[in-house]
């Protein structure tokens, strides 16, 4: 079973990443609990960051660039830890965001290489730290004036 997954890994990567892109599109149209969650990094909306991330990973999968795929997915796991923790902390959950996180985790498991655990831990930690430092998020509806959270306020509230 595992060898069959490795054989089809790149196709599975692309299919899961297309699902991830679809999730980001649905997230951008959501009027439910998702409308309470907004975030950005370096001024770029996270929906667009997620789509860009998925498109880059699709390209790397088509080119069979295992090491770069693993680096990005490891960093992505670190980032998703921050984003899921943000939702848990504020008791506001976005099913599209959680599904996107699940897709990233599935991709990480599929592409995991135990021989590269140092690389994995390092890039996951780097993704986590950089995202904590530069992530700005709000937990109010987009039509209301929102309070943005960054590292300083996040640590203060903990």
Detailed description of the structure:
A 4-stranded antiparallel sheet has the order 2-1-3-4. Strand 1 and strand 2 (about 45) form a beta hairpin. It has one domain (about 1-155): Up-down Bundle (de novo design (two linked rop proteins)). The longest helix has 25 residues, at about 65-90. The chain contains 7 helices and 4 strands, in the order H-H-E-E-H-H-H-H-E-E-H. It is of the alpha+beta class. Helix 3 packs antiparallel against helix 4. It is globular. Helix content is about 70%, strand content about 10%. It has helices at about 1-5, 10-30, 45-60, 65-90, 95-110, 115-135, 150-155; strands spanning about 40, 45, 135-140, 150. The model is unreliable at about 150-158 (pLDDT under 50).
CATH architecture classification name = Up-down Bundle
By DSSP, the count of extended strands is 4
Strand order of the largest sheet: 2-1-3-4
Secondary-structure element pattern, one letter each: HHEEHHHHEEH
Mean pLDDT: 87
Q: What does the main sheet amount to?
A: 4 strands, antiparallel
Radius of gyration: 16 Å
Main structural class: alpha+beta
Which term fits the overall shape?
Answer: globular
List the helices and strands and how they pair.
Elements: H1 2-7, H2 9-29, E1 38-41, E2 44-45, H3 46-62, H4 66-90, H5 95-111, H6 117-134, E3 135-138, E4 148-149, H7 151-157
Antiparallel strand pairs: 1-2, 1-3, 3-4
Helix pairs in contact: 2-3, 2-5, 3-4, 4-5, 4-6
């Amino acid at each position: 079973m595992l060898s069959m997954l490795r054989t089809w890994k790149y196709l599975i990567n692309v299919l899961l990443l297309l699902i991830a892109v679809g999730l980001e599109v649905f997230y951008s149209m959501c009027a439910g609990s998702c409308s309470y969650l907004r975030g950005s990094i370096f001024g770029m909306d996270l929906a667009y960051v997620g789509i860009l991330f998925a498109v880059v990973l699709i390209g790397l999968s088509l080119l069979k660039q295992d090491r770069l795929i693993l680096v990005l997915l490891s960093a992505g796991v670190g980032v998703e830890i921050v984003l899921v923790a943000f939702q848990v902390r504020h008791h506001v959950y976005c099913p599209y965001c959680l599904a996107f996180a699940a897709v990233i985790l599935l991709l990480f498991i599929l592409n995991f290489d135990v021989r590269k655990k140092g690389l994995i831990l390092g890039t996951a930690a780097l993704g986590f730290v950089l995202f904590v430092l530069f992530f700005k998020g709000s937990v109010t509806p987009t039509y209301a004036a929102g309070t943005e959270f960054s590292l300083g306020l996040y640590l203060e509230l903990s």
